[in-house]
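Incident log, structure service

09:12 report received: a user says their structure output differs between two submissions of the same chain.
09:20 pulled the input from the user's history:
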Amino acid sequence: MSQTVRLTMAQAVARFLAAQKTVIAGETVPIFGGVWAIFGHGNVAGIGEALHGIKDQLPTYRGQNEQSMAHAAIGYAKANFRRRFMAATTSIGPGALNMVTAAALAHVNRIPLLLLPGDVFANRLPDPVLQQVENFGDGTVSANDCFKPVSRYFDRITRPEQIIPALRRAMQVLTDPAECGPVTLSLCQDTQAEAYDYPESFFAEKVWVPRRVMPDADEFATAAAALKLAKKPVIIAGGGVLYSEATESLAAFAEEHGIPVMETQAGKSALPHDHELNMGSVGVTGSSASNALAEDADVVLAVGSRLQDFTTGSWALFKNPDLKIIGLNVQAFDAHKHDALPLVADARVGLEALDAALMGWQVDSAWTNKALKLKEEWVVEADAVRAAGNAALPSDAQVIGAVQRGRKAATLVCASGGLPGELHKLWRADGPGSYHLDYGFSTMGYEIAGGLGVAMARPADDVVVMVGDGSYLMMNSEIVSAVMMGVRLTIVVLDNAGFGCINRLQMATGGDNFNNLFRDTYHAELPNVDFAAHAASMGATARKVGSVDELEVALADSEGKAGVHVLVIDTDPLITTEAGGHWWDVAVPEVSDRPTVNAARAAYVEALKAQRIG
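09:34 re-ran on a clean worker, output below:
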């Protein structure tokens, strides 16, 4: 007869999480890097007590906002290439719902995240409890049902023994290369405190290692044959290249066969920026080199990419009528996109198998040489816009140049606004994981919290967050957490006095400047936020600089120093890099009384003709 141990459901959760391990560089380590927690009614008496009991085995960190602490967990998991991850627990009601945005971010970006929100009473006797959302027609519904569409796996625990299959299923999803994403276990608050005789075997150490999916023979033969016939092939490297640790295999494959490589936001840093076959970013925010090649390509080998609209130029980038896409992806859903030839497999396994099958084959040198020339031209263009200038307000591109010169080996974190587009084009990533963007969900407010998570995962790295004033105002509270925890972090705030990126989009679609920049809003008084003073009030070392040259000096001065350093610089909201880039499908009103909108609509209708169908 198996041995049992009597624990509350919450104690069982905590013990189980602490027993899950993985192997990194030959060392067995906990797969959970810790638990983020903001306690309240619904989790303080249950999961809070349980986490206290194992705090020496599984650390608990206190966030300042439920959404941002989950963002920090996402940053941690992404920086660990999904090999290690974190959990986050909250009270019921608003505390739980604050994490829904983070769940969606993890869902879109395929990032492992365990969410443990408190829930209402399973026995329903005290209903309605404080913060309970009541559904007049369904007694089983709670606020936590909002997690269902943004969770890879969702379960509501109403009996203590239910946690056994639920946690096992959770780990399967969190560690599965294809199904990976957020898991929500909604923990009814009375059930958290209920005891059960759990089998001791449930808490035995378990080691999880990545599954490497092998390609199907027929799919592989079709893909290899298509590549052998290619005259103008290109490779699009997505995030799956990094997550499958396939960067060396990608470089070897590209070099052996002379195929140029272009990177998505998630895939950037798959090759060093100075690798001769790395053409840089692709698509809407692509380099001129990548996009020129993509327009002519007859075969696109998309490795570990979701092929979202920014990558495909809203499916208008590829102009070759004979185009074939090979979708090398561990997730069949992605491998089949855009009528691709699917090659469902681990990225590293797939690339190495294709390399062997194509042994001795190289693309015509004229195609490779064209790529090399286009890259040389792009580097000159990029250098020009990154250089410091004499304008009263610098561009984002000039600030990017200053940050890179001031911190030559930085790991860059960003998420939303105009910066991701400029960074995708202009940031020069040296090593795998040194470029960390959320541009799947493009979540304003992710940047500082995500940077905290990245710094926790990679404490030896020089982590630099670049964030606009709009996103900073939306969520900045994890500066307090970073200071409190002694995390080393640099934050560069670009203040263009509003939502500059969306203002530019508004103008590009024929609109007037309206409700984006502070000066174009309804206001009694224009804001004049002292971001440096605000950051300093939270414990950071902060200063405002007056130019990109001063920023560069300040970055060099603070390099390697402990604590959180915040540097603020005013920027021009209207300037963006014209070189490179591609049309993006943003629908323009069909009817308007304004000539500028009508003109934008006419241009939009013309651009739609380039979109591929099917």
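09:41 both user submissions now match this output. Likely a transient worker issue. Closing.
09:42 reviewer note: The longest helix spans residues 365-386. The mean pLDDT is 97.
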